[in-house]
Structure formats: C-alpha cells, structure tokens
Amino acid sequence: MKIIYVIVLYKCKLENSKSYQSLLQNSGGAIFVYDNSPTAQEVHKENIIYIHDSQNGGLGVAYNKAAQYARCNHFDWLLLLDQDTTFQEGAIEYYIKAINEFPDIKMFAPIHRISDGRYISPTHYICKGSRPSRIMKFGLLNFKEASPINSGIMVDVNSFYKVGCYDEEVTLDFSDIRFMEKFRKLYPTFYAIKEVVCLQDFSIEERNVDKLMIRYKVFLYCALACKREHLKDYFSYFFVTVKRTLHLVWQTHSLSFMKVYITNYVLRK
Fold first, then answer.
1. Which among 13, 103, 146, 188 is most buried, taking Cβ atoms within 10 Å?
2. CA distance 30 to 48
3. In this predicted structure, which of 126-135, 156-165, 189-198 has the lowest mean pLDDT?
4. Helices 231-252 & 256-264 angle (0-180, nearest 10)
5. pLDDT surpassing 90 at residue 44
6. How far apart are CA 46 and CA 212, in angstroms?
C-alpha cells in the first residue's frame, strides 16, 4: 500500500503548518507540497516533492497535480490535506487499518471537530452548505446522508481519475462539494474513521471590510464556476450566495456587498 501525502499551503511555511506538524513531520513517506504562496520557500528534505505556484492556481490544480504525480509513480492512495488541520498521534495507522478492513471502499475520511466541540465533517449538506453539529457521524456512510471536507480524505488514485478529478476552475469554495458530487456517482459510500478526530481551525469572523470583500469575491467566483447538473443546483447556489451576501451586509452594515453580488454574480450568470 503506497500512500502519498498531499498538503496545500498559502502564505504559510511548511514547518508552521498544523497538518505537517501533527501528521507528517516525522514521516518518512512521500510528501507532495503544493505552495500557492506569492513567494517560494526552501524545502530540503529528500522525501518532499515541492511545487511552487505563485499564481495561486487553487486547490483543484494542486490536488490534480498531486494525483498526476501519484499515478506516474505508482502510488495507491492520496491523503489530501490543508495547512490547518491537527491530527492525533497514530492517525495513519487507523487509516491503514480501515483500508484493510474495507477493501471495496475508495474513500476514507477523518472526523473534524472545532474548538467548541461541534463537528463540521462529515455533515449533511443542504443547498451546498452545512452547519456544525453536536452529533458525530462515523462508519460506513452514504453521501446522501453526509459528506466530508477536503482535508484528511484518503482517496484511491485510480478512483480519483475515474470520477474526473477536481474541477480546477473551482479554486477554493465548493471544491470539495463538486468533487464529492462526482465521486458519489460511481462510489455512493465512504468510510468515516471514528478513531481519527481532527481539530480544525475555524477562524473567528473577520471584521475588516476590505479583507471580507476580497474573500467574498473569491466565494462568488467559485460559485459561478461550479457546474449545474440539475435544476435544484441553480436554486442551491442562488440560496447559498444570497445567504452569504445578506449575512455580510448585516455584519458590516455596508451595501457594497449587495452591489458586488449584482455585478459579480447576477449579471455574469
């Protein structure tokens, strides 16, 4: 069983990444680092493949490049990571145990918990969005009842390609939603490992309007880039973007978000 660990960075040194510190720092396995930061960093370890993308191609490009490397070098599994996930000691052993126990399953996921004790993955999605829950969902799950986020999913490399990889134009928001929508068409179930409970950074709400606007524009761009396969998809993306817009207007007391929503989303649909 050959596993390649894939971590995507943005304005973060590899050694400062919580995912790297908790899971990969002492690993002798192959680590594929895709750095979307404006400036490259020096990485000297022999087991690390480092790619710098100053243009910030996004998560889809990063994960697809890693999958391409994995397939060319005969890896069996991809473990996809972001930079802000803290794993407990011995997590990899639980992944391997689960893979051996369920050889027909092509995706394994951890449990993601935030600081207040609620769980954010796997969770049930409604209209392309979800809310933290006090209920932990684990074991063999159908994608109709719950879905995992990107960080921490272990995916079979061949299955990754069979479902069509990540949508590269969906650079950040909704990237996991789109991938899971494609994945479940061929593989309707995944396994959530109850022994692997990660602590996920869940940033407090930003108050700076300029920073909020930059992030909001990325959110709208990604929503526009998502493929609509059914009529309900049109409604879902309308609902989730309106909800975010109204929340930001209420939070900042600024109608600028409404104006941007009309010019950057409604008029471009």
1. 146
2. 6
3. 126-135
4. 150
5. no
6. 39
**What percentage of the chain has pLDDT greater than the value 90?**
93
pTM of the predicted structure, to 2 decimals: 0.94
Residue 202 has pLDDT above 90, yes or no: no
SS3 104: coil
Q: Which of 53, 63, 58, 46 is nearest to 152 (CA)?
A: 63
How is residue 108 written in tokens?
A: 């394994």
Are the beta carbons of 59 and 171 closer than 8 angstroms? yes
Computed on alpha carbons and rounded to an integer, the radius of gyration of the chain in Å comes to: 18
DSSP state, residue 204: P
124 touches 154 (CB < 8 A)? no
Record the tokens describing residue 26, joined without a space. Answer: 């002492």
- At a CB cut-off of 8 Å and minimum separation 6, what does 266 contact? none
- Of 269, 264, 118, 87, the C-alpha closest to 193 is 87
Residue type, 186: L
Dihedral of CA 243/236/159/54: which sign? Answer: negative
Structure tokens at 38: 């404006």
Q: Which residues contact 146 (CB under 8 A, 6 or more apart)?
A: 122, 123, 124, 137, 192
